[in-house]
Model the fold of this input.
Amino acid sequence: MSAIDRRIQQLDTIASVLPMGRRDALADLLTDQDVETLRHLVNQGMGENTLRALTSDLAYLQAWSLAATGGSLPWPAPEALLLKFVAHHLWDPEKRLADPQHGMPNEVEDQLRVQGFLRAAGPHAPDTVRRRLATWSTLTKWRGLEGVFASPRVKSAIRLAVRATPRPRKRKSAKAVTGDILARLLKTCESGSLRNLRDRAILMVAFASGGRRRSEVATLRKEQLTDEEPIALEGGSPLPSLSIHLGRIKTSGADHEEIVYLTGRPVEALKHWLKAARIESGSVFRAIDRWGNVSPRALDPTAVNDIVKQRAAMASLDPAEFSAHGLRSGYLTEAANRGIPLPEAMEQSRHRSVQQASEYYNSATRRSGRAARLL
Done:
């Protein structure tokens, strides 16, 4: 058995935890030690989304190293190679017009493009470069080695490269899906078809549970839902309530299980969908074919994004301005607009960073605050 065949077989053993559409390509790119590291992380219980992101970064790093140096990544990486990585990915488009050797060499770029690792033209986003360097550093530590990722020269190279090529920060969703926008999206789901029931439940659950990420919505399972005691209202009927056991998510600690709550209309929408689709266990949100048959498999996370855009178009909104992340930013923006204290909103959104969560509050309050009305 060849080394590549052996790696394919090893990757197959973790495919259920780490779905891979490019298994053969990964087996060709990754080394035996890379695959063994991934298997170790699966056995240690690392989250699926974290593993997917790590594997994607590792595959890119290996592909870049092969194209740029003719060999696999060395462990630990010398400082010169880290500086080369920064120079290949953070560069000045204006300077490249005058100097074709500036930035990533054409032959390296062409090879990565053919392999499907490069799509857009131009330098990389600084956050992408920092994330891949962080992945590289983390993998180095997992191998019991010391890297030079925090060296003054590497830090200075990144800082100077970012300063030389300023890029406006773009939000994941150009516009937040606030309460008024959400109402327009939900209005497109009023008829009782299975697709409308599903999409209505997705929109309401994703928003009301704190703006859940699309991966958390797509992978939600019936076993994660627990009915809670109805919420009593003074002078009104009790509201249905349930808890969603998210388990470990992007911002939770290694041993911390996250729980959020749904109350009222979102609970009703979710149960209506489950009953209509006859879902008693397994994936909550599933694909529906043209004949109205509900798939036994979970939706792909990208489908959640597509649903938001499709409903935006149906509501006569520009779909380019909205994405699934707009539900997350919209939840916090709407909470700020309604005067809900930031700590209370963060309990539901599960943000760990006050700075990040407060950005949405700042945008909402600055626009209508006294500081903007001095005249």
Residues 48-69 form the longest helix (22 residues). The mean pLDDT is 81.
